[in-house]
Design a protein that fits this description.
The complex is a heterodimer of chains A (112) and B (177). Chain A has 112 residues and is of the alpha+beta class. Chain A has 3 helices and 3 strands; from the N terminus they run βββααα. In chain A, strands 1-2-3 form a 3-stranded antiparallel beta sheet, with no helix packed on it. With 177 residues, chain B is mainly β. In chain B, the strands form 2 sheets. In chain B, strands 3, 4, 5, 6, 7, 8, 9, 10 and 11 form a 9-stranded antiparallel beta sheet that branches. Classes of the chains: A alpha+beta (112), B mainly beta (177). At the A-B interface, α1, α2 and α3 of A face β2, β4, β6 and β7 of B.
């Protein structure tokens, strides 16, 4: 790992587009500023790892029994009416596709 | 894309470890260019129906990779997240319609099943491209219990509520970026 020493207010560049600035030191905390293109995703490590772990848990070992009960237990919560990116509302178009896919699944010989 | 009649759209066949072989219309594919976090190699998915409100987000290129998802709009106003307008993977623009898929972690005891509100998948319905985003907001947990009373009885501590992400101020600054 490359290790550099910086003072508050000093920066470093990662490539041409990413600038990391040491903003401030407060006790044992350091505030870091990142100037980067918005296309670059920046995460706190612990949160990123948490998501990664949760995705892995979600992807593995789903038992059929648990799935069957899962659907039975859903109470439902207040139902949104779908949205537009601008903040408006409209029913999600994915629903329309679902029935399409549902038919295919039936023809593939699975339950339901 | 092709000159064939619409009724004979291109079909796509793929294998699923759970469900066997599937054939779906190619236009139903959802492309997630960056993949689901932790699974960067699978970028093409389809939605398969489970019992409502649950569905499957199933990888086309990996028969073993499938997620149970729930429509984010099912959570109503309490799940108030902004779509990633300007995101490069989805080319999401303000006028686009989008869907939100919440990844569900099914536990052996289904009452302990949780939803990852911290990392919703947004799908731009114009081009069916999606991205899993991380919401920098401590109200949303990676393990939101879907059955709250069962969950609080048996699993009622650290896992349930808050994510230790205390930096509201950071979030505000991020928003300006």
């Amino acid at each position: 790992m490359l290790i550099l020493t910086r003072k508050p207010g000093e920066s470093l560049y990662i490539g041409d587009n990413v600038k990391v600035t040491i903003v401030e030191m407060k006790g044992n905390q350091i505030r870091v500023g990142v100037d980067a293109p918005s296309t670059l995703r920046i995460y706190r490590e612990e949160i990123y790892l948490q998501i990664l772990e949760e995705n892995k848990s979600a992807a593995e070992g789903i038992s059929d029994a648990a799935l069957t009960e899962l659907s039975g237990g859903w109470k439902g919560v207040s139902r949104g009416s779908g949205q537009k990116a601008s903040g408006g509302q409209s029913e999600g178009a994915i629903n329309a596709k679902r029935s399409d896919v549902l038919l295919k699944r039936k023809s593939a010989g699975t339950k339901q | 894309m092709s000159n064939e009649t619409e009724t004979q759209g291109e079909q796509l066949t793929f294998a699923s470890a759970r469900f066997g072989e599937f054939t779906v219309p190619a236009e139903t594919v959802i492309e997630i260019p960056s993949g689901i976090i932790g699974f960067p190699n699978s970028t093409r998915f389809v939605m398969l129906e489970h019992k409502p409100p649950f569905s499957w987000l199933h990888a086309i290129d990996d028969p073993n990779l499938a997620f149970v998802v729930v429509d984010g709009f099912e959570f109503g106003q309490q799940f108030d997240v902004k779509p990633p307008i300007g995101d490069v993977d989805t080319d999401l623009k303000a006028e686009d319609e989008y869907a939100i898929l919440i990844v569900v972690t099914v536990r052996p005891d289904p009452r302990l099943t949780t939803a990852n509100l911290k990392a919703p998948v947004f799908v731009n319905m114009r081009n069916r491209k999606g991205v899993q985003t991380i919401i920098d907001d401590q109200r949303y947990s990676t393990r939101f219990p879907l059955w709250s009373e069962a969950a609080s009885e048996e699993n009622g501590d650290a896992d349930q509520g808050q994510i230790a992400d205390t930096s509201t101020q950071d979030a505000v600054e991020n928003a300006k970026r």
